[in-house]
# Entry
Amino acid sequence: MQPFTTLTAIAVPLVRDNIDTDAIIPSREIKNVGKIGLAQGLFAGWRYLPGGREPNPDFVLNDAAYSGAGILIGGSNFGCGSSREHAVWALAEYGFRAILAPSFAPIFFDNCLNNGLLAARLPAASVRLIASLFTAPHRTRTPPPLTLDLERCEVTGAGLCTLAFSIEPHARARLLGGLDAIDFTLRSSAAIDEFRAADRTRRPWAYLEGPA
Amino acid sequence: MESATIIDKIWREHLIAADGGQGLLAIDRIFLHERTGAIALKGLRERGRRVFDASQVFCTIDHIVDTRSGRGDDTLVPNGRDFIVQTRDAARHAGIRLFDVTDPDQGIVHVISPELGLALPGLTIVCPDSHTCTQGGVGAFAWGIGSTEAEHALATGTLRMTRPRSLRVTFDGRLTPGVGPKDLSLLLISRHGAGGGNGMAIEFAGSAVRALGVEERLTLCNMAAEFSGVTALIAPDDTTFEYLFHRRYAPREARWDLALRHWQSLSSDPSAVFDAEIRIDVNNLAPMITWGTSPEHAVRITDAIPGESAAGTSREAYRRAVAYMGVSPGVPLTSLAIDAAFIGSCTNGRLADLRSAARVLDGRRVARGVRAICVPGSSTLKRQAEAEGLDRIFKDAGFEWRESGCSLCFYAGGEDLGLGKRVVSSTNRNFEGRQGPGTRTHIASPATVAASAINGHIADVRRFEPFRPCEY
# Structure
């Protein structure tokens, strides 16, 4: 996994509460057992006019000013609903590397972490401020980029005072190090085996001896 | 010892190590399905990793399998067959038990797990599916994860987790006939928001919860996913033990006795402190139904579509919801004509749900022009329902009676209910496009779905015999 330290990119405002993973990637857009080919389906229900692939001119991702965006600004409880990791794979494939929102649904947050995407929490007022300063007046030209610094947990940008974001220390460390979680855990194999051996004696009823 | 919640107790028992504010937890059961599970097994194989302990892993085909009779691997979902075939191959290669399309035990993962006695009190259970918290209905600590996390659990038999904050929701009082666990969930979510339980582990407690059967408890815990909870559970009691006794994979004889002794200690100590508490009096509650596009957009069945200021949701969300649903403020819910009715899903596709709908449908007919579909949650309970004659009641009323699966709970490019069609559904999500492009979903209990199917518009089940009680 690619480590995340800082990111300077254009931010897209989509400040709606409870944006669910069905909206991020509708189930009909998940067409094979894989993690790629999902960017086309990102926000498909909002991004295209009903019944086809014609862009919906009212949807923010179709505004040329935001092409090449790397940051998404969302509302509270972002990523609620289905656990589908395809939502994160689709966002990443489209080019997003960070999401700023007042809160994230728990499974979605972990999915971001496992794919090297920064899901950073900011107070709702900060989210609104960033969204208004950096996005709304720039319908025809490219808005100035935002910079996210994960070492300092700060958001900066032209015309914006430095704003702090929060993220759990373990999540920050994982992103900064770009660590593979499975390799990391397998280093504790001895402790896991020891625990299981003792647990089998303590809770024999919890174990199934093999496929029935 | 300090007093502890049931969540503390299960956490402690599974904690292998703590570091960086997280716990490394031992996982007792892993479930997979064809939509998000095959990719986890595939990822594992690609990196040359092995399943840590195949005897604790189970897989089912539920999400995109066809539910029409005579089904095989072909589905109406584009490439649906690939998901099924690849899941089967991956399960075989990994040596894990698969409940395949034609297996008599096939069914929706969160329905079959308790039904087979795989979910037990105090176990940690994970599945790459948000509704895994359903299994907390038997007192398990069960939560939904992503596919990468599933790979981690498969490879190591563990997961790293930040210890969630604890929330106790106490429902006290007595439910009136026609009001059930689905209504309790919708009431809770409408009061505290779809993000109200964000990041929390929830214990449901109180006299109204104790009075619920296990199947109803599973419904209550299921809907915690729509509250953004990490998980939800109900402390096991005699109702739970009776339900689990002699289930296929449940412990037997000496192991059962040992388990039972352990399970009897799994409750929150009287002086245990939760990070947050919610209390709700359930006396005089009415059936609930959603009017918008989030589960928090729920009102009493006797209410009208709320105005913008009373909706308890942001202005933009309100306007989008009203436009999508084709409803106007002030219009009573019960005046809305419906095109379809759906009973099924991991939320409300169990025997208790089918029985409660059948009580409404018995001797009645679905209104003209309404498409009505019932999809039992598992193949086993479908056979049980047929043995009781429930299938006849559904079919005589004009319902389609299907094979088990997730079916029309979500649209994957196969079957849908039609553009702009209004459906009353016993499922869990009324998101835009969830049941098909433009489909307008109203979430309610199976009894409310049945009553609405009969009337041809959204209906108050309490006006139907035998739900019309004297105390109401």
